[in-house]
Amino acid sequence: MNLKIENLKAGLPDKEILQGITLEVPPGEIHALMGPNGSGKSTLANVLAGHPQYEVSGGNIFMGDINLSELEAYERARAGLFLAFQYPVEVPGITVGKFLKRAVELRRGEEGRFNVSAYIKELRTAMDHMGIDQKFINRYLNEGFSGGEKKRMEVLQMLMLKPDFAVLDETDSGLDIDALQIVAKGINTLRGEDFSALVITHYQRILDYVKPDKVHVMVEGRIILSGGPEIVDELEAKGYDWVKDSL
């Protein structure tokens, strides 16, 4: 499903951060969003997901025909939007298995007729695919997990929920090369005409494994450059000052 952002302006109550973002990700494509620290990338991710801390002062967000701007955060999730957090939170008291069961049940609209046996089989297969020990099913969500385990757990959730559109906010941060390859494998598993994504990152390395169809560069709350994957190589060689100087 496509994502279309039209002249989006948003930020905190005392500070506008997004200065008019216009961006479109067509169905079946994966786009990368890059930019220096403080450019507004994570703010955009949170605004797309409907985080109540942020205020939208202008523009629209469409996922297919759905105006996400009119929906609460949980409604956006049930409609098919997924956010992988930059810093996944720990949720003591609820196990991975029970958390995902309820989330999948709501996402698929199968309340009252959920096939638990089929779900458990699917979950175990997805965990094997992501290199996650089966014992994690009965562990509290993210509690005591390493940084890499938390990031793999985010992608596991995505595999189980099968969103129409995913926003991956620096899913590669803090990962060693082995964990990075596993996370990338999970993302690529969903790649196809029924799935689109925006991969937010500072660095080239995840884009060596998740090849973007298009790259956007954000600086100071604006998209200042969009183009093909060759932009990544230019940024790696010359840094973000190259983009500013080339405008």
Give the number of DSSP strands.
12
CATH topology of the domain at 3-89 and 163-246: Rossmann fold
The poorly predicted ranges are none
**What share of residues is helical?**
25-40%
Placed side by side, the strands forming the largest sheet appear as 6-9-10-3-11-12
CATH class of the domain at 3-89 and 163-246: Alpha Beta
What is the chain-wise order of helices and strands?
A: EEEHEEHEEHHEHEHEEEHH
Put simply, the count of helices is 8
User: Beta fraction of the residues?
Assistant: 25-35%
Average pLDDT level: 93
Q: Tell me the CATH architecture of the domain at 3-89 and 163-246.
A: 3-Layer(aba) Sandwich
Radius of gyration: 18 Å
**Alpha-beta content class:** alpha/beta
State the end-to-end distance. Answer: 32 Å
Major beta-sheet overview: 6 strands, mixed
* CATH-defined superfamily of the domain at 3-89 and 163-246: P-loop containing nucleotide triphosphate hydrolases
General shape: globular
Structure, briefly:
This protein has 247 residues and is α/β, with parallel strands linked by helices. The protein has eight helices and twelve strands.
What does this 3D model show about the protein?
The chain has a domain at 3-89 and 163-246: Rossmann fold, CATH 3.40.50. The two termini are 32 Å apart. The protein contains eight helices and twelve strands. It has helices spanning 41-49, 73-79, 96-108, 116-129, 147-161, 177-190, 230-238, 240-246, and strands at residues 3-12, 15-25, 30-34, 55-63, 66-67, 81-84, 91-95, 140-141, 165-169, 196-201, 214-219, 222-227. 36% of the residues lie in helices and 29% in strands. Helix 5 packs parallel to helix 6 (177-190). The chain is of the alpha/beta class and 247 residues long. It has a six-stranded mixed beta sheet with strand order 6-9-10-3-11-12, sandwiched between helices. A four-stranded antiparallel beta sheet has the order 2-1-4-5, covered by helices on one side. The chain has a two-stranded antiparallel sheet with strand order 7-8. It is globular and about 55 Å long.
